[in-house]
Amino acid sequence: MSLAPTRHLPILATAVVLALALTIGALRYEHFASWNVFRNLLVDNAFLGVAAVGATFVILSGGIDLSVGSVVAFTSILIASLVEHRGQHALVAIAVALAFGVGFGAAQGALIHAFRLPAFLVTLAGMFLVRGLGFVIHPQSLGIRDPFIAETLNESASFTLALGPRGIAIPLTVDIFLLAVATAAVVLNFTRFGRAVYAVGDDEHSALLMGLPVARTRVGVYAVAGLCSALAGVVFTLYQQSGDPASCKGFELDAIAAVVMGGTLLRGGVGSVLGSTLGVLLFGVIQMFITFEGTLSSWWTRIVVGAFVLVFLMIQRALLASTQRA
């Protein structure tokens, strides 16, 4: 059996399920198949998409990161506090938040590699640490009244597509999401670092024998994940126009679920950013179904996502069995 079609089976399954879901939604609900609904799908899931990009790097390398939600919440309250309480320019606050994300992620990666510690436990500790630091900065939600964020970044930086009778306004948050996906795809497919990420995830021992920089790759992977988590926090802050240290609890599980539904193997070595993006869109479409139905609790989103994750895990299991037979 050829490995190529087997490797693409999970992402193909995600694409088929997403297409079916969109078709069913268009047939069942009025106005579901509209440009405004698709625009809202992107806007409402932009920060999840950016976080899923970072989670893709980590899972491809055979790791896991449980600190994503805490970093997003910390970033949001850090930006809000710097802007509202310290009088810093919004761009300075964003730069500080992104620098923190890179440094925090790299520190986690260094601990995992240098001391051979389980990524689950290191990032679990990081999750508690950063969540607590967020409450130290400010113990509750903090609104942002800065006009640069409210007007320049959220309104002036958006652009309008000539779709529909009135056009569709695409905010900066969606641009950041799409740019993160495109950049990650180029890095993973056309750079030495990207090839090393796949190699380490597939077989770390073989990667060492091939002379690949395993230590640098692992630290780099978690640094990228930290950067994407902080960038997701920036998108979340622009989306909410506030910071909240108590927000995004369990958000890391949403990111992992989107990556798994997108066809990335939890053991590492197989997957793509495109698949994770499809997983994020599928996650969002499930939420849209619940909203359009109107009579279902929002908790049904978790139930359906849980069922999908189990299905895609079974597909991954079948993939591994086929690969081993081949």
Question: How would you summarize this macromolecular structure in one to three sentences?
Answer:
The chain has helices at residues 3-7, 9-28, 35-44, 46-60, 68-84, 90-114, 119-137, 147-156, 172-190, 192-202, 204-209, 214-240, 251-261, 273-293, 299-325; strands at 142-143, 159-161, 168-170, 242-243. With 326 residues, it is mainly alpha-helical.
Could you please describe the fold and organization of this structure?
This protein is mainly alpha-helical. The chain has a single domain, classed as ABC transporter involved in vitamin B12 uptake, BtuC (Orthogonal Bundle). It has 15 helices and 4 strands. The chain has a two-stranded antiparallel ribbon with strand order 1-4. Strands 2-3 form a two-stranded antiparallel sheet. Strand 2 and strand 3 form a beta hairpin. Helix 9 crosses helix 10. The chain is globular, with a radius of gyration of 20 Å. The N and C termini lie close together (6 Å).
Distinct helical segment count: 15
What value does the average pLDDT take?
93
Number of E-state strands:
4
- CATH level 1 name: Mainly Alpha
Low-confidence parts lasting 5 or more residues at pLDDT below 50?
none
How are the elements arranged and paired?
Layout: H1 3-7, H2 9-28, H3 35-44, H4 46-60, H5 68-84, H6 90-114, H7 119-137, E1 142-143, H8 147-156, E2 159-161, E3 168-170, H9 172-190, H10 192-202, H11 204-209, H12 214-240, E4 242-243, H13 251-261, H14 273-293, H15 299-325
Antiparallel strand pairs: 1-4, 2-3
List keywords for this structure.
two-stranded antiparallel ribbon; 15 helices; 3% strand; 326 residues; mainly alpha; 4 strands
